[in-house]
Amino acid sequence: MPKTQPTEPDAARAERPDANDEPILFARLEWVGRWKRLAAIAAIVLVALLSIGVWRWALPGPVATDRPLELSAAVRFGQEIKKVLDGEQRQLYVADYVVDDAMLGMLPIETLRRAKQNAMAIKDNPPAVDEDKSEVPVYDAAGKRVNFDPPAWQDYPQLDTVLIDQGIVTGEGLAKIAELPGLQHLRLRLSPITDEDLQPLLQCRDLWLINLPHSELTNEGIRSLAELPKLKQLRLGSKKLTDDCCRVITQLEKLRGLHLIGVPVTDNGIKVLVELPHLESLYLDDSAVTDEGWDWVFRNHPQLHVHINQSHHDRDPQSHQH
Question: What is the mean pLDDT of residues 47-60?
């Protein structure tokens, strides 16, 4: 009888891979290898991130730049007022930040008023001059005295010019501006000033230039400006004005310069305007004057300085580069 082969124990046979199981085993081994490689890469990345964090933590803080802090509009407005009180300037010019009625409450009305009163008192009662200490006059080549100081009473803070190009000022704010002693020049852009708003301004007896390009004035408001004894320059825009305002404007007999913005002045209207006895310059933006109307103007008023829509008229005798 042939000899029989010894049989393996069942457990040993179960542990021996069968030929059919080899692909599965190789796949498992490959997956294990990939997992180990991924774990190694993750460990390297983690170490790198930790190193970067420690390095950045050890760096000094950011270096401060020289860029100035952006100040609020109220602070900037206060700085301009301080320059006035310090005698550095006599105008308040706002072009790149917004001013409103509340901010105009910062105007040092009483301080400026007292300063002017004190100055006028010194003018009326000047101190005695010690003749022994008087200086010998010294003149320059042009004949102007160079060692002469202006009278002491003239050296006081003044605010005679207010130019506000940003923000909306209403009647409340205009009333505060009108309290300034010695106001001479006023410009309020973007502000819808009405006839009623204008009333406090009529007390400014030194005011000679008014610029209200976005007002809501009517003929009545223009007529009231005749109360200003020194008014010489008027720049005005209002959707409530028509050609008939030209006759009212001629009541402002001291005007030397007139600029109307968006007012539909006709040929007849311009013939009325040039009746102003002292008119030297006339600016019209978006008017209804025809070429025939302008021909009449230059025939009858050849010296009049004329602008149309922000440019010299081609027949303007005073045309020059802007």
Answer: 62
Are 174 and 108 within one domain? yes
Eight-state DSSP code of residue 153: G
Confidence of residue 62 (pLDDT cuts 50, 70, 90): low
Provide the token pair at 53: 């964090």
Cα separation, 249 vs 258, whole angstroms: 9
Residue type, 101: D
Residue 260, classed as helix, strand or coil, is strand
Is 172 in the same domain as 249? Answer: no
For the segment 270-304, what is each residue's pLDDT rounded down to a tens digit? 999 999 999 999 999 999 999 999 999 999 999 99
Q: Domain range for residue 230?
A: 213-322
Residue 156: CB atoms within 10 A of its CB come to: 16
pTM, whole model, 2 decimals? 0.73
296 within a domain of the structure (yes/no): yes
The string of pLDDT tens digits covering residues 7-20 is 555 544 444 545 45
pLDDT digits (tens, 9 = 90+) for 84-103: 999 999 999 999 999 999 99
- Is residue 114 a part of any domain in this protein? yes
161-164: strand order across its sheet: 91-94, 161-164, 185-188, 209-215, 233-238, 257-261, 281-285, 305-308, 311-312
> Based on the structure, what is the number of domains in the chain?
2
Tell whether 61 is covered by a domain.
Answer: no
Distance from the Cα of residue 277 to its chain's centroid: 36
CATH no. for residue 220? 3.80.10.10
